[in-house]
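During the second year of the project, the team shifted from modelling isolated chains to modelling whole assemblies. The rationale, set out in the original proposal, was that interfaces cannot be judged from single-chain predictions alone. As a representative example for this report, we include one of the complexes processed in the last quarter. Its constituent sequences, exactly as entered into the pipeline, are reproduced here:
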Amino acid sequence: MIAAPRKLPAPWVLRTFVVLILLLVWEIAGRHGSQLLFSPLSKVLTSGLQIFAEAEVLEALKTTAWILVVGFVLSVAIGLVLGLTVSMSRFTYQTFLPVLLLLYAIPQITVLPLFVLYFGSGPASKVAFGVSHGMFPIAVSVIAGVQGIKPLLVTSAISMGASRWQIFRRITLPYLTPSLFTGMRLASTATLLGVLLAELYVSAGGIGHLTRRFGENFQPDKLYALIAALSLMAILINETMRMLERRYSRWL
Amino acid sequence: MEGEALIKVDDVRHAFLSKTGEEEVLALDGINIDIARGEMVSLIGPSGCGKSTLLNVVGGMIAASQGHVLIGGTPVKGPRPKDVAYIFQESALLPWATILDNIKVSLEFQGVPRASRDKIARISLTAVGLDAFGDSYPHQLSGGMKQRAALARALSLRTDILLMDEPFAALDEQTRMIFSEDLSRLLANEHKTIVLVTHSLAEAVFLSDRIFVFTSRPGRIKAVLNVDEPHPRIPTFMTSSKFNDLRNRLYELLRDEVLAAIGKDRQGLA
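Output from the structure prediction step:
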């Protein structure tokens, strides 16, 4: 006889438990380690969180946020145009895709000095570095999306007299929408990474710059609070994108 | 046959390059067919005999290497959406759009003004008995209903000619039978000119006025069978001796060609 399956607790119960244990370990380790290198959870929550009342930190958050928005919008626009150009025909696909993938494969951080050279150390180079991270996931997702279109749909549309524009508007565009949103979700976090890296190594403003300063000044409680804020930002963006993605791929 | 043919296939020959791109494969040779307005014609033959290719030449989707096709007296030089509607093997419905929207998009492709699209779409959905499913998505429908929706779309285009490329291929036997009966009834009212590519002997006999039997590649017309039976065809026709005789003759004509086609494949394997 087969034994009746034992009833397991819901996944979130165990998940919460694991997180609580980790927080506890953090607290204990923080209290026993060096206060210069490490900060217990309780201290992060009390003194660390106070940084969000400081004008400088709020300013940095604002700077990073708008650079992120500009970078993301540009990533989507450029990535979409790139992806559609590559997908235009078999010829463009075979010609440009390897080039695109090659550029994507370059460890981008090594190119950062070039960006500073071209765009200076102000917001322009941060936006550009964010875009260089964000546009590739968009382009690659768009290309994959267009490749997946059933040829029969296009044949059928041509037989009914559809123009090239109508095929794009009524078939290509709706078909690649779910892939575009997947690309946008990946691109949003990639853009954030690019912007933060540029701030961390180059500029004198934004959250990336602050994280470096808090680190160098041995203020781990503030650093942790900032990291928590950044994580929250990334999670919010990611989840918003995931919601949009689901909303627009219902037919899949 | 009285008067000018609506579709005239004039000495069509078609060759294409093999997949390796080295040798030329002759798919169709010396095809002459005249199809009268309102006639229902089947093309039947072994796999690879070029019958689908011929259908696409008639529809203007493929340009023949030689010869030409006339529709209503004018040569076919590309898709003719005002004259010709297609039904494909599997549903070519857009998965992200409702059935109603699918038909409306097709009407947009065809150039029908926006204001009249909704009405035309609903009329054709009612004609195939899918009026309650206009707001459903293709994936919510069974295979038979999807092909019915494809039929509604083709009807909504209001063309004189309907080209069907094995429209029952993806359906199960019982659905096919019902669909054939419905099709016969519907098309008797619509007076459309129909060219049907099929593998099924029974479907060819049940639906057609004339059946063109193709040889194995290169596809030539081996024989033409007349099915002298008024439309709409009723289920009892399928059990009549006339039906059986025709079906058997068709089988005899096809058997050699199918064996020849299989033989060629075997040689290819050896």
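The radius of gyration of chain A is 23 Å. The interface with chain B takes residues 150, 152-153, 155-162, 166, 170-171, 174-175, 177, 251-252 of chain A (CB under 8 Å).
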